[in-house]
Specification:
Elements (H helix, E strand, L loop, with lengths): L1 H21 L6 H21 L5 H23 L6 H19 L2
Length: about 100
């Protein structure tokens, strides 16, 4: 259960990062509220998962999922470049996250 919560929390990290960008410095109320809610839920999930998963592994997986998710949303929905070096770099992060899970 801790791993499932950790993955969901990593996905919520993507949500709060995108909401933070969309809040335009907290000048857009809806995006700002989405940011706060997803941030709190993401942190709460991370805290829950860290009761069973070592902090080094849990935090690295959480950040990796959030970073890859945010970069993918940026490329697919926000017009950020999706070139081969960026995609290969994201694959390396995914490989690291999988490795942390496998060797936990």
């Amino acid at each position: 259960m801790a791993w499932l919560v950790l993955v969901l929390s990593g996905l919520l990290e993507t949500a709060w990062a995108i909401a933070l960008d969309r809040s335009a410095g907290f000048t857009r109320p809806v995006a700002s509220v989405v940011f706060v809610i997803t941030l709190v839920l993401s942190m709460a999930g991370l805290a829950y998962a860290l009761r069973e998963i070592p902090v080094g592994t849990g935090y690295a997986v959480w950040v990796g999922i959030g970073a890859v998710g945010t970069a993918v949303v940026g490329m697919v929905a926000l017009g950020e470049p999706a070139n081969l070096p960026r995609l290969l770099s994201l694959l390396l992060v995914v490989a690291g996250v999988i490795g942390l899970k496998l060797f936990h």
